[in-house]
Records
---
Amino acid sequence: MTIRRIVDDLVDGIRTPDRARSPVDAYITDEEIFERLNPGMHYSNEVVSELRQLYVEQFDEEERDGKEWDLSIENMKQEFLQLEDDEKREIGRASCRERV
């Protein structure tokens, strides 16, 4: 009887550890990220692939490594507008240099 109680107590004390929780976004898809960042827009794999390529092409060849679009249309728009402003500034500087 005593041995039985000891064994039962041991078995009752054995527990499987709780499973570690997965990070919330560990298995999130590009579609979910895109739709979260761009409310009201529909995800299209073909279009997003083209936009990714377009995003990378805005950089010089040497700068392209490690550059990746974050799937936000607004962020891409701001970067393109900044690029356009930079180009206009550079054209303005070159124009001023030619006059001097």
---
Amino acid sequence: MCIRDREWSEAKEEIKETINQSDNTAVVTSRVVVDKVIRNSSTAEAVLAMKKIDPDFDIIDMEEEVTHIFEKVHNAYLSNDTETLSKLCSSDALGFHKALLRVRIEKVDKL
């Protein structure tokens, strides 16, 4: 984790703690409303299911991790880097990417 990511994570945790510990009427009311809205969505159901399995699960952390992985796979694909793709992808996903790379390379060769 780079310094910027660590600083962001620390700031995010401080904000969460401040909000969760606040006695301010507006903050408490907002928390209640947000909790009720979130509880009624399919995303909330999925997050609650994940929290039952892993009490420390954080959807924001997951989004950051998924974004990081996607960027690595995408960059490897754009660079025709099958070695990196083989490290990051399952065999099915790797086969899919290799097929796409073959098609892309064939198109370039025809130009």
---
Amino acid sequence: MLRSTSRAIRWASTATDGEILAKLQKKELKFHGLEKFLEPDYERAVRLRREFIKDYMLSHDREATSETLNTVPYKEYDYSNVVGSNCENIIGYVPIPIGMAGPILMDGREYPIPMATTEGALVASTHRGARCISRAGGCITRVCGDGMTRAPVVSLPNLSRSAELQDWIEGNLNQLQAWFSETTRFGKLVSTKVRIVGRKAYIRFRATTGDAMGMNMISKGTDNIMNNLKKVFPDMEVLSLSGNMCTDKKPSAINWLDGRGKGIVAEAIIPKEIVSEVLKTDVKKMVSLNIDKNLIGSAMAASIGGFNAHASNAVAAVYLACGQDPAQVVESATAITTMEEDEDGSLRIAVTMPSIEVGTIGGGTTLPAQKGILELIGCAGANHDKPGDNALLLARVVCSAVLSAELSLMAGLSAGHLVRAHMDLNRK
């Protein structure tokens, strides 16, 4: 192993590619340590890792060729933004095209809907929905909930002690808030929920986290709470900081009912003339189909939060464009789409989304391209005047994007245009 740091740095500056690859093959240089070893020449580290993988594949995989990985780009990328924060064992990057739907008139202002996707027709369909909404006077949004969650699981000697723990937590919110605040200036613990299963207890902490998505913030605060709580309950054992009642990156009824992240509702009223002229259908058909498909159909599937046509399509595309965690589409895309016919014959459409998990600082939002997209919306970074407002704006844009996508797809389905649209826009 290359034990002396100064000697390793001197050797790295003069070593040939072949010498470094030989060290990798002999396991004298760690596969994941190339960036640190060759710092700051991260592109060379990525190139050598690719060469190592290519050589390995050629010797172990009959189908591998010397062209392996050639179509995966790696040059002209600033890896200094990624190393140590966003990705490990880097071999390049995957370009995803970004389209823009809208702008949509939301709460009296126009906002773009950036969407990174490889699904043809998605951007065009969302754009059609946004155009209809804007032409009808726009949509309104309301924030109905705000709070990231973390739920440890703990064990006590018996049921009596787990019940005592529940009583103590439910009666000492101020103390828990004080412990939480010791770890952050921006986060605030707002509520707790305890569920007992025998002598085990699941404690769901909910906190506002400013403009951050907040998983790290609430995890750090929760950890501090648990360390202090052990002084009050010395016989308590923390089995895991996450006991899955949070619930993160998994479908769950608790997120659907109680929310996680931002709870947003968006509503628009579309005159029957626009429904007829632009969407090529009629209000009664759309209302009836929404009941049969999004409500009854989803109930027949025993769906949890899936009472919509394709909310995840819009959520995933906006998340990828804006540097959000794509795994959180699982709970963020839970939504119910409702449609009614107003007295004047207009279509009243609303989308309710209780668990939109977004942030405008940290994670993928720090990467230049993703940050640029957030700047396009007007919500990049932290809002210093009103902390948390940038993340809330992004959540509202996400909900409005879903509203646009739902309107357009449901119109296409009720008019029988879905297959034709995909054939026109999703095939060469």
---
Amino acid sequence: AQYRDLKELKEIQTQVKNCPMLTDKNRAILAKADVFRVKCVVDKSGAVHTFPQDNKFPHFQKFKLFLFDDALLITKTTFEIEPYEPSRREVDNFVNSYALASLRVRNTERENQFILYTPQSVYLFEFATAKEMTEWVDCINTAIQNAPKLFVPNVYVTNDP
């Protein structure tokens, strides 16, 4: 299993543009997810508010999440078009990676969305189905609970809205 994980880590590192070093014999990939980031703002009370749909600025952005046993890697998907080529190519661009102990996850009123609180940002992610989202949240919560603990004040995992 260790060799398989190392091989998969190398593939992810090659796939993600500007990706930091991932290969570590002790690191394992737990899950991957294709999600949409919903544009939102967080007010002083911690409530998340989404923007109305606007044709000039896309409401959703395609992201990928890579969950490891010690970290979460977030990438943003863009599309590149080669000159004289009829098709476009999907490119995963590195956004950030976070130690699991520094993350907090919360469900929203919508059954296929969850909020990810990181030290720098708040992300509102949407899955295609509620089942996918529930499986992902269960997986990341378990990974956070089992991850090496860091001293990070005011970080906790909760499922209440």
